[in-house]
Amino acid sequence: METFICIKCLLAAALLAAPVPSLLISPLKLACLLLWVYIGLYSVQRVQFGSIVPHSRKSLVGFAALFAGPIVLAVLFVINTIKNVSDLKGTVLETLRKKLHNFCSRLRYSGFVLPRNDWVIKLTDSSGKELKDIYAQGKLHKKDSRILDLTKEIVLDALDERASDILIDPKAESVYTLRFRVDGILRTIEEIDHDTCKAIINSIKAVSGMDIAEKRRPQDGSFVAKTPDSTTSFRVASAGVLNGEKLSIRVLNQNAGMFTLNNVGLSEKQRDIIKDSIAKPSGMILLCGPTGSGKTTTLYAMLNQIDRFTRNVITVEDPIEYVLPHASQIEVNPKADITFANSLRSILRQDPDVICVGEIRDSETAEMALQASQTGHLVLATIHSNSNATALIRLLDLGITPLLLSSGLSVIISQRLLRRLCDNCKTRATLTQSQIHMFRKKKINYTSLCQSVGCDVCSGEGFYGRTAIFDILLLDDQLRTSIGNSTLSIEQLRKDGDKRGKSNLQKQGLKKVVSGITSLEELDRVLG
Q1: E-assigned strands of 385-518?
Q2: Do 224 and 188 share a structural domain?
Q3: Cα(501)–Cα(120) distance, rounded to whole angstroms?
Q4: Among the listed ranges 51-55, 251-255, 372-376, 468-472, which one has the minimum average pLDDT value?
Q5: Which of 31, 399, 478, 513 has the most C-beta neighbours closer than 10 Å?
């Protein structure tokens, strides 16, 4: 590529130095020549680092790009657009809109557009040391400064887009893909060349306290981003994969502490059930659902319902996502032998009224949490399972005795997250005759149903934000007796419980569809 650049520069210099008529060196002609030079160099870069041109043809096409830069660039653009339309099965207009967004992002990432001022965001490690002081020990060259600015831009863009995860992974030998997970859906933001992205990954690993030299073994770390409005924590995980190193960055929910039982998506009847359970002095409330279903947010909403002035609240979390005033919060750290089980032992000696366990992962934690619920403590906990029935099965599989399970557990709550339709662009839904017939048969008013459209507010997705749907199981005396006497068939519980739980979630989701909060397609996507 350096050879191509030198040839192009020599050609431009020869044209400028040669004796030419006065019209040729007019400002307009000079501007056009410089623009042609820039487009030619940019075309060569896209050919060399792109994945459209086969490796064996890169030299030939790159040489052609020196003399016909705009033409080659246009051809590459058309080929890439057709390929994206075919792969993503979207419309041409949607693909062109995304390409324009990527082009603007690429200009910023290339350094031709000045980054936002340094005071807008600061990246620090767990001790408060800034990234620029960690990277190159404060002696930054121009290239290093550009990499740090680019790293900050990526993090700041993720916060602006409300991303919950940032994924940086190699797409090919010469290209990395940057993706954001927004409202549970992955969006491809940009493709970055190999050398630049490796430097970005190293800067993130450095500020996260990870070993930059180690690229094969998985590593974990964390860092903090400070903006004028907020402070956000990030958890980082790296892994060696084909063609390079993958980086997964989890944006910890900075708004978790602002949620209450009134704004997480509960119906009035469900809120009353949970409020009554929280008001009791003992018992165990178990939240279940797959990864990314909003369990932690609901957990914080319940903790916000508790009067922390009159009740001693102690939490064990991995990690602490939001600082709760007037509560004692313990963060799990396996390297320091601070586990859920070890923390629970110490908590029971600190006169707690309410114990919050971020996640039940092993039999020891599950047993201690259920025992604590029997000895005058209210226990809030989460567990990974698909339904209320499978949560019971999971606890039994962990070795919990049926008697302890029946006496300690009070409420099980299963939940899912649905994307909310964008209020700025949603429109009345167009229904098929079969759908209209189904709604009429079930006597459901379908006139308020809406569908997604897409606008600038929601970045063309048609959805903005999420809401939860819940299935609540109260353990009554009959169910407790069946569990305690081991007369409950595991297979029947799995079959009937999953079916009943899915039906309840569909019923709650359908209410939100009829209210125009979400769409039928979104409900089908989440529940199937």
Answers
A1: 409-421, 427-428, 450-451, 463-474
A2: yes
A3: 46
A4: 51-55
A5: 513
Give the chain's domain count.
3
| pLDDT tier at 51, thresholds 50, 70, 90 | low
Whole-number Cα distances in Å, 27 to 11, 21, 23, 122: 19, 13, 9, 42
What's the average model confidence in pLDDT over 365-388? 93
3-state secondary structure 197-213: HHHHHHHHHHHCCCCCC
Strand pairing partners for 246?
A: 239
User: At 106, is the secondary structure helix, strand, or coil?
Assistant: helix
**What is the spatial distance between Cα 57 and Cα 47, in angstroms, rounded to a whole number?**
9
CATH number, position 210: 3.30.450.90
Counting residues of the chain whose pLDDT is more than 90, the rounded percentage is 39
Q: What is the mean pLDDT of the chain?
A: 82
- Bridge partners of 233, per DSSP, are 224
What span, in angstroms and rounded, lies between the C-alpha atoms of 434 and 329?
Answer: 53
Domain assignment present for 98: no
pTM of the model: 0.74
Residue with tokens 């060349």: 193
